[in-house]
């Protein structure tokens, strides 16, 4: 499941950042990709051709084109097109993007085109030639273009298709915005001809240092690799095998300072080979479970968290998550809510987000969008899911902040689904045995003479380290807020349980004078108070990530007074205004903190 090119810490490489203005062209019927009969597209439609249409038209009066990727409108990249123009708000289909860039050739240097993310499928062409294709909207991909590039002007063209078909992950209906486009940074990346493609170093669950280095190129085998951890006197030296791989398994340096939310210490780590060096900043911590407890550096930790979509604060977000935008949201969690944990929902967020969490001392859950219903019987879908997890894991396995890989959200129990997810869990454990595996599960509810009883009855639990559940009593369904504190939860004591979601909509500024009504801030705040009373009665609860930090765009939410395309379960509004429930959570976590020490 390892991507062909990992390009660990790609931003530290010699790169050309392709962010900025790109020309674009809509192509609802995909005529630039295929003809009406499914054959190769008509040449007058092929947006990726290595030509200047205006010049061609001048040269030959009989020339005929139905596109022009030089004189078209432009769009700022990275960006989701849905927010850029009102007519693209609900556009689902292909948009072509093109940009030119200059290259000075250098001997013995390889070149790649790398995208941090494009939603959902990307067809990539360089100088008129196909470089590759990728599906999955939230993980990076790269293609080698060493033999396609030329001296001087080069041209890159990408068809981004936001349509989700029967094999897509997620499927076609979600509770978040469609957000098509090149949503994270695209780059040209240069490397030596044999380079360090993949390098990681972490502590395993027992505090031993483990890692791996992979070289790519002609001279990959039998090279000495040295790893330096600045400020320690540890010397690690390993040699690559015939596949260019070297594994690390050694004692941690004496006095190694452990990374934690209270003291997020990062070491400068340098991986050195004869042909290439790679610099990383890495925190070292252990994460494991003991019975119902989660142990961070061998001490029980309560995950005081919140869920978050990848959407910046503002009236018209476009998934353009700059460093400042991420820091603003993360500070609301760490400083505002007194939290130590974020559920990055419902898909892998950017590499930058997990790097900033490393720096700020925030624990993370990262998941792929195996969400609601997908085709669990289809082996290609399973392979897609494994590949996506791989792209996330190989990108982020140096991040101390990430402690949980989650494989699914609210997938109804059924044989096909169980087999699919058990298989996926095994694959994740093989790829990364040092972290914990979870999934957001549905619960079983029974009304008995004792009252409302909730239990987790899911065969998947045996494959998981942490049981996470989403619960919405008091918002969805008929339960009253007064019922919540009395709900009886049955949880196993051999595994930690966390509440991966609970929440209620409220529109900031809407207040109830008398009895709280749904969508008022008072109702949401009371919902939080009562749900927290319920949570305090759940034996062995090890953490929570209420739904959600900020109101977010969702085409499913169209109440004309309160929603208008926004899911309003945020503790802050889309423009960052804190609702009453924000203070309820902040107080709760403050109290939790003071009882933990
Ligand atoms: C859920 C989903 C989440 C939704 C949320 C809601 O259970 O996991 O994606 O947005 O409920 O607001 O209903």
TrEMBL record:
Ranges of residues in domain Glycoside hydrolase family 2 catalytic: 288-565
InterPro entries hit by this protein: Beta-gal/glucu_dom_sf (IPR036156), Galactose-bd-like_sf (IPR008979), GH (IPR017853), Glyco_hydro_2 (IPR006101), Glyco_hydro_2_AS (IPR023232), Glyco_hydro_2_cat (IPR006103), Glyco_hydro_2_N (IPR006104), Ig-like_fold (IPR013783)
Domain Glycoside hydrolase family 2 immunoglobulin-like beta-sandwich: 195-285
Key word Hydrolase present: yes
Superkingdom field: Bacteria
GO MF assignments: beta-glucuronidase activity; carbohydrate binding
Glycosyl hydrolases family 2 sugar binding domain: residues covered: 43-185
Class of enzymatic activity (EC top level): hydrolase
Alphabetical GO biological process terms: carbohydrate metabolic process; glucuronoside catabolic process
Keyword list, A-Z: Glycosidase, Hydrolase
One Pfam family in the UniProt entry: Glyco_hydro_2
PROSITE patterns: GLYCOSYL_HYDROL_F2_2
EC number from the UniProt entry: 3.2.1.31
Family: Belongs to the glycosyl hydrolase 2 family.
Protein name: Beta-glucuronidase
The species this protein was found in: Cellvibrio polysaccharolyticus
């Amino acid at each position: 499941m390892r991507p062909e090119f990992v390009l660990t810490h790609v931003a530290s490489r010699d790169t050309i950042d392709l962010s900025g203005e790109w020309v674009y062209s809509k192509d609802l019927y995909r005529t630039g990709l295929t003809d009406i009969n499914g054959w190769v597209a008509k040449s007058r439609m092929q947006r990726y051709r290595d030509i200047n249409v205006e010049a061609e038209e001048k040269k030959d009066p009989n020339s005929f084109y139905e596109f022009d990727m030089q004189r078209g409108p432009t769009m700022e990249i990275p960006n989701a097109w849905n927010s850029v123009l009102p007519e693209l708000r609900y556009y689902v289909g292909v948009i072509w993007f093109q940009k030119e860039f200059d290259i000075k050739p250098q001997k013995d240097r390889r070149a790649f085109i790398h995208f941090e993310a494009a939603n959902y499928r990307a067809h990539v062409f360089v100088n008129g030639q196909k470089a590759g294709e990728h599906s999955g909207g939230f993980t990076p991909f790269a293609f080698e273009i060493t033999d396609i590039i030329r001296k001087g002007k080069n041209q890159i063209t990408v068809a981004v298709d936001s349509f989700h078909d029967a094999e897509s992950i997620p499927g076609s209906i979600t509770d978040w915005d469609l957000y098509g486009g090149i949503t994270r940074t695209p780059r040209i990346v240069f490397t030596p001809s044999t380079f360090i493609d993949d390098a990681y170093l972490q502590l395993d669950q027992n505090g031993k240092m483990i890692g791996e280095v992979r070289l790519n190129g002609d001279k990959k085998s039998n090279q000495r690799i040295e790893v330096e951890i600045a400020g320690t006197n540890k010397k690690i030296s390993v040699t690559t095998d015939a596949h260019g791989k070297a594994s690390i398994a050694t004692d941690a340096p004496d006095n190694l300072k452990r990374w934690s939310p209270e003291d997020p210490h990062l070491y400068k780590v340098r991986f050195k080979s004869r042909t290439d060096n790679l610099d990383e900043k890495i925190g070292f911590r252990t994460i494991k479970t003991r019975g119902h407890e989660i142990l961070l550096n061998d001490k029980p930790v309560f995950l005081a968290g919140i869920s978050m979509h990848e959407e910046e604060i503002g009236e018209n977000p476009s998934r353009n998550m700059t460093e400042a935008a991420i820091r603003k949201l993360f500070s609301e969690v760490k400083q505002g809510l007194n939290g130590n944990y974020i559920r990055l929902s419902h898909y892998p967020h950017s590499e930058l987000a997990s790097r900033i969490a490393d720096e700020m001392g925030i624990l993370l859950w990262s998941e792929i969008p195996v969400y609601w219903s997908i085709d669990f019987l289809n082996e290609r879908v399973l392979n897609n899911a494994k590949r996506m997890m791989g792209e996330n894991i190989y990108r982020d396995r140096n991040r101390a902040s990430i402690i949980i890989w989650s494989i699914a959200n609210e997938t109804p129990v059924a044989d096909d689904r169980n087999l699919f997810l058990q298989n996926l869990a095994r694959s994740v454990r093989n790829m990364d045995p040092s972290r914990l595996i979870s999934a957001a599960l549905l619960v079983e509810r029974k009304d008995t003479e004792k009252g409302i009883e909730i239990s987790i009855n899911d065969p998947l639990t045996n494959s998981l380290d942490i049981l996470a559940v989403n619960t919405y009593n008091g918002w969805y369904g008929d339960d009253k807020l007064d019922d919540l504190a009395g709900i009886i939860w049955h949880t196993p004591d051999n595994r930690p349980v966390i509440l991966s979601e609970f929440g209620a909509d409220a529109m900031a500024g809407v207040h109830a004078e008398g009895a709280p009504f749904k969508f008022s801030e008072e109702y949401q705040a009371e919902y939080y108070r009562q749900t927290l009373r319920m949570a305090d009665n759940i034996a062995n609860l090890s953490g929570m990530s209420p739904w959600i930090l900020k109101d977010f765009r969702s085409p499913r939410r169209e109440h004309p007074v309160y929603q208008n395309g926004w899911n309003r379960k945020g503790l802050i509004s889309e423009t960052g205004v804190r609702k009453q429930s924000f203070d309820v959570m902040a107080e709760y976590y403050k109290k939790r903190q003071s009882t933990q020490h």
